[in-house]
Amino acid sequence: MKKLLALTIGVLLIYLVYYLQKPYAYSSVNPISEINPLILVNSENAFPDNVNLNLVKFQEKEVSDIIYNDLVDMYNAALKDNITLKVNNAYRSKKQQTQMFNNKMQSYQNEGYTEEKAYEQTMLTVQAPGHSEHETGLAIDFSNEGHYDENEQMWEWLKNNAYKYGFILRYPQDKYEITKIDYEPWHYRYVGKKAAKEITNQNITLEEYLGGNI
Ligand SMILES: [Zn+2]
């Protein structure tokens, strides 16, 4: 019985590894979302509630349909270089963002912070509801939980290649004054291929590219 269980687990593991490595080569979608890939969402610009988003699944996470085909191409290209792009976070609803924000704030209050201080502290690490790029479905956090070395390779690959598929490193090093967010090597934002190439080549942020709010 134990052998059978071990065998079953073994087969499942092999299947899981195969499934995670499997290229998405043949899947594609026809986007119907009405979202501008250059939309600016940050601490000063909220994501409007009335944007018609169509979400599709990628690695069991949801993303805006307009990024799907390029994401698949990027995933396959990385795989050829022996990098598996693991999506850790993608779309998050405003409700989920609110929950996340409140939980973080509550944990600070539990530590003895006043409500005001807890709010200030939370704002440093979690975007206020309506202000997270994850609500657009255009942002992805790439990360293998618990495998820091693997992440390093993944992030290095993304840094050098993501722009070819329309993605930018959204919160680069030394750009806090502009983005109001510390360096996040895992957070990539879809802006379309033309903008991604220009932003990456010029080493600027989306804020600078759009010329406002800086
Ligand atoms: Zn993120």
Residues in helices, as a percent range: 40-55%
CATH topology title: Muramoyl-pentapeptide Carboxypeptidase, domain 2
Structural class: alpha+beta
Low-confidence stretches: none
Q: Average pLDDT value?
A: 89
Bound small molecules, deduplicated: zinc ion
Compute the number of strand runs. Answer: 6
Number of helices: 8
- Ends: how far apart? 65 Å
Describe the largest sheet.
4 strands, antiparallel
Strands of the widest sheet, in order across it, are: 3-4-6-5
> How big a fraction of the residues is strand?
5-15%
Number of individual domains: 1
Q: How would the global form be characterised? A: globular
Query: Gyration radius, to the nearest Å?
Result: 19 Å
Proper CATH architecture? 2-Layer Sandwich
Q: Would you state the CATH class?
A: Alpha Beta
> SSE order in H/E notation?
HEEHEHHEHEHEHH
Detailed description of the structure:
Helices cover 45% and strands 10% of the residues. It is an alpha+beta fold. The chain has a single domain (2-92, 132-210), classed as Muramoyl-pentapeptide Carboxypeptidase, domain 2. The strands form 2 sheets. A 4-stranded antiparallel sheet has the order 3-4-6-5. Strands 1-2 form a two-stranded antiparallel ribbon. A hairpin with a 2-residue loop joins β1 and β2. α3 (94-110) crosses α4. The N and C termini lie far apart (65 Å). The model has no long low-confidence stretch (mean pLDDT 89).
